[in-house]
Structure formats: structure tokens, C-alpha cells
Amino acid sequence: xxxxxxxxxxxxxxxxxxxxxxxxxxxxxxxxxxxxxxxxxxxxxxxxxxxxxxxxxxxxxxxxxxxxxxxxxxxxxxxxxxxxxxxxxxxxxxxxxxxxxxxxxxxxxxxxxxxxxxxxxxxxxxxxxxxxxxxxxxxxxxxxxxxxxxxxxxxxxxxxxxxxxxxxxxxxxxxxxxxxxxxxxxxxxxxxxxxxxxxxxxxxxxxxxxxxxxxxxxxxxxxxxxxxxxxxxxxxxxxxxxxxxxxxxxxxxxxxxxxxxxxxxxxxxxxxxxxxxxxxxxxxxxxxxxxxxxxxxxxxxxxxxxxxxxxxxxxxxxxxxxxxxxxxxxxxxx
Amino acid sequence: xxxxxxxxxxxxxxxxxxxxxxxxxxxxxxxxxxxxxxxxxxxxxxxxxxxxxxxxxxxxxxxxxxxxxxxxxxxxxxxxxxxxxxxxxxxxxxxxxxxxxxxxxxxxxxxxxxxxxxxxxxxxxxxxxxxxxxxxxxxxxxxxxxxxxxxxxxxxxxxxxxxxxxxxxxxxxxxxxxxxxxxxxxxxxxxxxxxxxxxxxxxxxxxxxxxxxxxxxxxxxxxxxxxxxxxxxxxxxxxxxxxxxxxxxxxxxxxxxxxxxxxxxxxxxxxxxxxxxxxxxxxxxxxxxxxxxxxxxxxxxxxxxxxxxxxxxxxxxxxxxxxxxxxxxxxxxx
Lengths: 334, 334
Prior knowledge:
alpha/beta, Rossmann fold, 7-stranded mixed sheet, 6-stranded parallel sheet
């Protein structure tokens, strides 16, 4: 009998996540029912959205993870047993498989991936949910035009680094906001951003005026809080503000800090709109084909931050919120 | 020699406006230069935007009123002397004429109005700036479809009362938010709103859930603050939030309170956009013709709250912020 190690949500976190918010349990795997498959998970994706799924709020796009349930996460793995005619042992699949070693699944909502085309972690990053978010959030919601100034926060993160590079490929001038000299250097020297601002040491308002003297045409926001306010204060006429996330706010114990400067939407005739990646799943092939081509052609660089060992999950997940991750954060399980 | 009484901005207000923020001066009228006209002002429009013009902020769509200058306001009056071939004595004009008895003007930016078509205060309300704001803000930015639920705050105000009625004419279900039983009754019984919520006595969240169980498709916001947050918490999928103003915030001595619930834009794939009436001046005839027809046909009701006497300006202006006005607030000068 095979055991399955899994992280169960033990309580709703208050503020930053602690290891005690989870139970790290070992459970024997049950036999498959007709139609089910057994997946050996190799890599778990760690994404900011997971923090929201841990809250009790009913006001979100997905129900919260129930207490006692396996922590929800996107993952990729190999099928080791199948009682579903649509899936063959040896196939690789990705989907909401959870923070665990094995998943039993009926196959609905899973996508097959081909590990001969790209390393598996890439299917959790540029060729997965963060990639689709960046591609459609920027191009469909942000609609940058050639010559536009595009600003992106969380610019060294999984989504932000793609947003900036896609914007460059579309002829925009790109400014990134990130925390720390290493990330700022990476954005400018490795990814070809026109400028990058270190929000930890620079005066954001002054830096924005310097790097975007005519204002920001597209702001792609992953961070919220003070960074969103600073960007709103420096919009160009007719700007588009893409709300992708608010990682600065997810661990708040008080209410989210709303953007004081939202009336600049009026002054600048600007638009603020949210992007939800699930609205674009039906167009996934367009993004994956295009970005896959860019990656093959050396035009789009990706960086995966792979941490070994399922048991490190709570500490590794925390890196998303303290800025310690360098690129797309992935937990390697086997 | 004729004297001109005028309100000059004496200092930048801190919080609510006080009479001491103005000098009420009497100045002899100078002679006209070539190209100028002299206008005897009959009615001054009192609008929330004027509060913003009094602040030092450089971050707005118009420069602030300079200290010592006549307080900026839209007004309507009759030409009593002209050295401009485009304007004849006896013509009525409207534009930024200021809070004073007489204006000397070069005519640029003024519009002629015909007092035989409508009472003069109407050109400051439904057939003026508030009318254009309501018409284009709702139809162009909010884009209500037949059967949509439209929510409007400041619903008994100059803009809000028009927004709700226009939405009804377009086949929407309309909910107003206003302060006080009289206003709520007026909205439902006189203007035909489907429902109205008294924010002073009702629980806004509960009332919104009750009156808009499927969520709000279009929210037209004149108020900001808690009302904006409550509306954001009750949006329908794909909602449009029209930011027209934030009268709850204009007297703040601290920063504007931003909407905590702005991440609902993401959850609900909603759009928040500002409307600036000046973007629609080139389409003014469309709105005025249409709304003039509705008024003539009894389909659009207007209410002007006319207060006598220029000297009451500071106290009358304050009515906009304490909710004491009933409809479009106008100061009658002669």
C-alpha cells in the first residue's frame, strides 16, 4: 500500500502564513474508482492566489479551501495508474492537483503537457497560468500601443517578468517595479526593461516622474497598496490600469487598503479593470503557441525558482510574500 | 460708475468651507476693452467640482483658483454691453463666469442660451453641465443595457436624478442611494425609480442585496467612500463602475479614502472608469436636444433648488456637502 503525504488546511491564517496553519498528513492511497486516474505529482506551483483561497471569504471567484481539505494548488505530474480511457499511464497532466505527492482525479479540467517540448516547471509558469495571465491581461485588458509607456509591479515575479517582456516585444517602453538591487538589475540587464525601480530604497513618486515623465499608459498591477497609489498619481491621459492582484494586501489582518488616488481615473479619463485568467482558458493555445515560439526564439526569458521537497511548502510559499522568490516559484516533489 | 460684488478666494479651505475662506468684495467695474463683453449674471451654478478647484492640488483637470481671484463657477447671465461683434446686448450666455454680479469676458468658451426655450436655471442643470455629465457618463461610460440593474449614488442630486431617469428611459431597473426619507420618497414616487435606499438610516449592504439580488450592472458614483465600497461588494459579472465624483471625500483633511473593495473589479471582471464632462462638449447638442425633448414630453423631471442672494454663497454652497440641497443648487443673483 502506497502512502500519500499531503498538506491539509488546518485553520484559516491570520496575517502571514504559519506552518501551524497546515497539517502535514500521511494517508494511505485508496483504490481508484472507474473513471479515475492516479497522478504522481512532480512539481507544485506556488501562486499568490492561493493565499486568497485560504480565507473564509465567500466573496471571491472560487470557494475557499475547506478546513481539513488538501491545500488547493496547480501542479504537474505523471499518470501512474488509469481507469479512465482518456488518460494513459505515462501521460503528464497539469491542473488543480493540490499540495501532495499523489492526486486521484476524474480528469475533468486537466490538461496534458508534453515534457519533450519544455521542462515541466515551465508548464506551471510561462506556459501555464501565469503565462496566460500575463499575455491576456496585458494584451487584452491593457491594450498597449507601440510607443506606450507600460509600468508593471511585481516585475520580477512570475507574471510581471512576462508582462514586461511581452510589452517590449509589442514596442512599448517598459518600467518595472521590484524589491531589491538584484531584481532591478535582472529586469534591466537580463530582460531588457527600459528602467526598473527598487521600491524598497527609491522614492516611488519621484522615480515614476523621472522614468515616465509623460505618464503611464498601461499599469499592470500585481501588488496594490502604496504602489498602486503611486502609479495612479502618474497616469497618462486615457490610461489603462490592469488589476491582476494585490500581493501587498493578501496577508492583511485589517481591510485591504483601497487606492486613495482612484479619482485620478476621472482626472485622466482612465480605466481600471480586473483580469481573471479563467476567462481566457478557451484561448490558451493562442498564448502558449505564441509564447512558446518566443521562448524557442530566445525572445522571451523565463526563470523558475525551484525549491526541493514537499515538506518545505509553508516556508517556500512564504517567499512569495516576503519577496524572496526569484522568478516563478515551484516546489519540486520528486 | 457701477460696482461689482464678487466672492474672492481668500484662503484654501481646511475641511468644510467657511465664510472666512472668501472675501466678499465690492469693486468698481472697469471699462471694456475691444473684444470684451459685460455680462449681468442672473444665476450662479453651485457644483461639487468647485470644492476641488479651491484646493492647491496641481493634480487635477483644471488649475486651482488662485488666492485673491474671483471664485470660479458656471453661471448664466445677460449681456449688458458688448465690444465683441459676436455678442449682442440682450443675448444670454453661460460659461465660467464666476461667483459675482458682473463678468467681463472675451467670449471664448461661452455658449448662448435662449430663455424662451427654458427657464435660465435649467441651463445650469439638465440642459447644462450636470445634464451632459449624466447623459454621457451613463450612456457612454456606463453603457446600460435593457434589463440591467443601474445603481446611482447622490441620486437626488443634480446629476444623480437625471442618471436614474435616463436609465429608466433606457429600460433599466434603477436603484438610487440618497440621504433622508424625503429624498427617497421623491426618487421613487416622483421620478419613478424602482427602489431607493436611505444611506443615513439603512444598512447599505443589506439593502443592496435586497434590491439588487443579482448584483449591480452599472454603478454611477457621485459619492465615494463607504457607498462606493458597498457597491463594489455587490457588483454583477462584467459590471461598469462610472466614477463621476466623490462628494463624501471633498472636505477631507486626510487623504481620500480609497475603495477597499477594488479587488472586486478582478473577481467580477468589472471596469471602473472616470467621466469628465469636458470630453463631451463637442457632442453637447445631442444630449441637450434629446433631454430637452424628454423634458418637453414630460418624460424627464428636473428640480432646481434656487436660493436668493449672492451674499448667501458660502452657506448655500455648503448645502451640497451636508445634503441640504433638493435638486440642482442654483444661486439667484438678480
